[in-house]
Every structure is written in structure tokens, then in C-alpha cells.
Design brief:
By secondary structure, this protein is α/β, with parallel strands linked by helices. It is built from ten helices and nine strands. Strands 5-6-7-3-8-9 form a six-stranded mixed sheet, sandwiched between helices. Helix 9 runs antiparallel to helix 10. It is globular, with a radius of gyration of 19 Å.
């Protein structure tokens, strides 16, 4: 299986304090990936370092075998909603059309084709009726869906999403899950910073456990273990272990005669 992302010996530090230390990670193409760990574990920093938004002290990153600078158009990014200036005077449709700029180059301006594409992307996330609405007038869940539509307009092969489920309502959460599954079905790779251990096994099929260092990475069945959660969460492991126990109960319940898979 080819890799969408390969990270070798990546270290990122802020004011001489390591945020990420010696990360070696390979993510296969066509996976829905959750990056999970405690607060301050470096989850968002990992995405930002891959995208060149956080300076690396050491290490290399390749996307589909190339440096990020050579394949920017193949990568989509949905930042944390809290990091966006939602008072910027623009409508939902214009925000989504920004996703087409990389395909146009520096000189051309978006036209009817880009506008039509942006509308289709808004329809895909259930926001076509709000195309002309100022983004500041949208709810948190609606804003998140607009940013997802912008990423769709990029027609990327690899998507990074920083906590896409935070602060959204149940309808938006289900819409995001369906969108992620559609992206996977079309061969895309999606990497999400995620915080909810309950929903992670249902929403994703590949897991990265992180706490400054990489703890483990792989399929949920191989990686979502009590030992790995103990290493990841340390003194706060009680709640994490309970999530793992629920996962194990659900998995065993789905097997004939309670026999675990694999």
C-alpha cells in the first residue's frame, strides 16, 4: 500500500521546549486517520509542521513521495474554527471559491466554472441555501461546513483537518462523518486531530497516538490498546482505559461467539 504521508525524525520546539520529538510516521493512502493524545501533546503542531506552518528543528516530510512545496495543490487544510477571523466581510460562497485559487494560478480570476464548483461543494455539505450569507452570521456548525466545502473545492488527495468536530451540533457532526466516508470511498486520505475516544473507532480506521513522541500508529484493532493508551495519557489514563474497555466490549459483541478478530 502506498503512503500518503511519510515523516522522518521530525522535531519541533517552541522556546527550546520540544513540542514534537523524533517523530517517525507513515500513513497509508486511502485511510481516515485520527491523531489522538492529551492536551499539549503536539497534535495540531504535527499538522502545522507538515504544512510548513510550524518550523521544524530537524526532520523531513514527504507527501506522496514529494516535499510539500511541490504538491501543495494535492493537499487540503481545515484549521481549527477558533483560529479563523469570522468577522472578515465575505459570504460563504466566496470562502468556498478560495479553494479553487490554487488551480487558477496568480493571474487568472475565478469565473463561472469555479463558482459552479463552489456551489456543488456547498450542496455536498448541506449549505447551498446559505451561499450568500455572511460567514459571521452563520452558526459554528455552519461555519465548519463552509470550511469543509472550501477544502472540497481544492479537490485534494490528502486532507488535514484540525478538530473538525469541536463545537458542532449533532447534524453537522453526522454530515462531517458522511463527508469523510465519501472522501475515503473516492480514494482520498484524511488526517484529523480528534479528541473523543468514544467516537474515534466508529469514525476512523487508522490511529496515531501522540504525546510529544509518537506512541503508536496503525489500525484501531492493532493500536487502540490499554497499554498504548496508558503510555499516551499517563496519569490521566483512567478515562482513556474506560474508553478502551467500551471499544473492546463492542468489538467482541460483534464477533461470533464473542471471539475477537485477527
Amino acid at each position: 500500500m502506498s503512503n500518503a504521508l511519510v515523516i522522518d525524525d521530525l522535531t519541533v520546539a517552541y522556546r527550546d521546549k520540544p513540542a514534537l520529538l523524533d517523530i517517525d510516521l507513515s500513513i497509508p493512502a486511502g485511510k481516515l486517520v485520527a491523531i489522538i493524545g492529551p492536551n499539549g501533546a503536539g497534535k495540531s503542531t504535527l499538522i502545522k509542521a507538515v504544512l510548513g506552518l510550524a518550523p521544524a528543528v530537524a526532520g523531513t516530510v514527504s507527501i506522496f513521495g514529494e516535499p510539500y512545496a511541490r504538491c501543495r495543490r494535492r493537499v487540503g487544510y481545515v484549521p481549527q474554527r477558533s483560529s479563523v477571523d469570522w468577522d472578515f466581510p465575505t459570504c460563504a460562497l466566496d470562502v468556498v471559491m478560495m479553494g479553487t485559487y490554487g488551480q487558477l494560478g496568480w493571474i487568472k480570476r475565478p469565473g463561472k466554472a469555479q463558482r459552479d464548483l463552489a456551489m456543488r461543494c456547498l450542496e455536498q455539505v448541506g449549505m447551498a441555501a446559505f451561499a450568500d450569507r455572511q460567514i459571521s452570521q452563520l452558526s459554528g456548525g455552519q461555519q465548519q461546513r463552509v470550511f469543509l466545502a472550501r477544502a472540497l473545492a481544492q479537490d485534494a488527495q490528502l486532507y488535514f483537518m484540525d478538530e473538525p468536530f469541536v463545537g458542532v451540533d449533532a447534524v453537522t457532526e453526522r454530515a462531517i462523518v458522511n463527508l469523510l466516508r465519501d472522501l475515503r470511498a473516492s480514494g482520498k486520505t484524511v488526517v484529523c486531530v480528534h479528541h473523543d475516544l468514544d467516537s474515534a473507532p466508529e469514525y476512523f480506521d487508522w490511529l496515531v497516538l501522540l504525546n510529544v513522541r509518537l506512541i503508536a500508529a496503525g489500525s484501531f484493532e492493532a493500536t487502540f490498546t490499554s497499554e498504548n493508551l496508558r503510555k499516551t495519557y499517563g496519569g490521566t489514563m483512567g478515562a482513556a482505559i474506560r474508553h478502551f474497555e467500551h471499544f473492546e466490549e463492542d468489538r467482541l459483541a460483534g464477533q461470533p461467539d464473542g471471539v475477537a478478530r485477527g
